[in-house]
């Protein structure tokens, strides 16, 4: 009887795990220029937004949310799949810790008009343990005037998908690149294709276009200094 009960419990756990699906972080609900911090750990961001979803996920203080200018923020972007808020950083790199770990794949949407970035996925917390995989993100094309890129001043558009499958269990992700030059949306844990309905690994590939805007930035430093 005990053996049968054990088999039933194991099957139930596996069923729950299989049906849980990937975790998608859109950063909606955070304020402009707010540190994400414990928002996805059932807590709040640095400006008190939240409590957010209890995913057991935390970010270092370099990880910031930014809202686009059409919605009252200072972000020079549009067309992000997750909505009007994305993740970016102004110093260091944005680091995400997932103590419970995640497997199978990692993916996101991003925009980086001037130059790309590098994302490293590690088996330990705080960039520790073994490097499981690296995503080398090329610069993205300038999309204006093709929808959804309709505002010439919001040059970080469109957002492109990128993802990878990997073996092992990941516990941290380092989002690197040139500060103020790359934004991330729909960060997805557990799938190599970003978004809540993604199940099939399909890493995106595209050419290097729109590299002539070296003076642009995801956030206007002049406007930020006036806040």
Give the tags.
227 residues, mainly beta, Jelly Rolls, four-stranded antiparallel β-sheet, 2 helices, 12 strands, 29% strand, globular, disordered N terminus, disordered C terminus
Word description of this protein:
The chain is built from 2 helices and 12 strands. By secondary structure, it is mostly beta strands. Strand 8 (117-122) and strand 9 (131-137) form a beta hairpin. It has one domain (22-225): Jelly Rolls (Sandwich). Residues 1-19, 198-215 and 221-227 have low confidence and may be disordered. The termini are far apart.
Question: Summed up, what is this model?
Answer:
The protein contains two helices and twelve strands, in the order αββββββββββββα. It has 227 residues and is mainly β. The protein is globular, with a radius of gyration of 18 Å.
Strand content: 25-35%
Count of alpha and pi helical runs: 2
What's the CATH topology name? Jelly Rolls
Structural class: mainly beta
**Arrangement of strands in the largest sheet:** 3-6-11-8-9
Highest-level CATH class: Mainly Beta
Q: What is the terminal-to-terminal distance?
A: 66 Å
Question: What is the annotated CATH architecture?
Answer: Sandwich
Unreliable residue runs: 1-19, 198-215, 221-227
| Average pLDDT level | 84
> How many distinct domains?
1
Overall morphology: globular
Order of helices and strands: HEEEEEEEEEEEEH
Query: In angstroms, what is the radius of gyration?
Result: 18 Å
């Amino acid at each position: 009887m005990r053996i049968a009960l054990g088999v039933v419990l194991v099957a139930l756990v596996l069923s729950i795990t299989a049906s849980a699906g990937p975790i998608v972080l859109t950063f909606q609900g955070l304020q402009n220029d707010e540190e994400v911090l414990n928002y996805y750990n059932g807590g709040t961001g640095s400006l008190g937004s939240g409590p957010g979803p209890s995913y057991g996920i935390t970010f270092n203080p370099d990880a910031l949310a930014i809202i686009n200018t059409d919605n009252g923020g200072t972000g020079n972007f549009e067309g992000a799949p997750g909505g009007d808020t994305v993740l970016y950083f102004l110093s260091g790199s944005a680091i995400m810790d997932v103590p419970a770990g995640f497997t199978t794949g990692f993916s996101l949407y991003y925009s980086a008009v001037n130059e790309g970035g590098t994302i490293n996925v590690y088996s330990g917390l705080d960039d520790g343990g073994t490097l499981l995989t690296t995503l080398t993100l090329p610069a993205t094309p300038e999309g204006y005037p093709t929808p959804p890129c309709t505002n010439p001043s919001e040059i970080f558009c469109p957002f492109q998908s990128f993802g990878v499958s990997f073996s092992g269990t990941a516990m941290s992700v380092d989002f690197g690149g040139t500060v103020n030059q790359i934004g991330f949306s729909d960060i997805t844990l557990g799938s190599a294709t970003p978004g809540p309905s993604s199940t099939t690994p399909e890493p995106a590939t595209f050419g290097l276009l729109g590299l002539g805007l070296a003076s642009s930035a995801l956030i206007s430093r002049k406007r930020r200094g006036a806040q």
